[in-house]
Design a protein that fits this description.
Layout lengths: L3 E3 L4 E3 H9 L10 H15 L4 H22 L14 H21 L1
Antiparallel strand pairs: 1-2
Length: about 110
């Protein structure tokens, strides 16, 4: 089960939000990470049990959102060809790996 969030610019599963950010369909600057964390904490309190899988998924996604947002706010690095590197490129690769691992763990169950 994926955590659903309700924000001013998006409503739906957190993994879909990450996908839309990757594809530049949602601007990372419009995402209030504190609000997502608050909704997550309310959800955990409401279910009254610890779901380690959900908690670990949330931590990965929240850390990824924070990383993207921090990298977008910092000055961009210039590569050897003189082009600015997009800080999201490395994160997209990590998210693809994460999705693959998540799929494989589902298949193993």
């Amino acid at each position: 089960m994926s955590l659903s969030v309700k924000l001013e610019v998006f409503e739906g599963p957190l993994d879909l939000l990450l996908h839309l950010i990757e594809k530049n369909k949602v601007d990372i600057y419009d995402i209030p990470i504190a609000m997502i964390t608050e909704q997550y904490m309310e959800y955990i309190a409401a279910i009254k049990k610890e779901d380690m899988e959900l908690m670990s998924e949330f931590l990965v996604m929240a850390a990824t959102l924070l990383d993207i947002k921090c990298r977008m706010l910092l000055p961009k690095e210039v590569n050897e060809e003189g082009e600015e590197e997009d800080p999201r490129a490395e994160l997209v690769e990590r998210l693809i790996e994460y999705k693959l691992c998540k799929y494989m763990s589902y298949e193993l169950k």
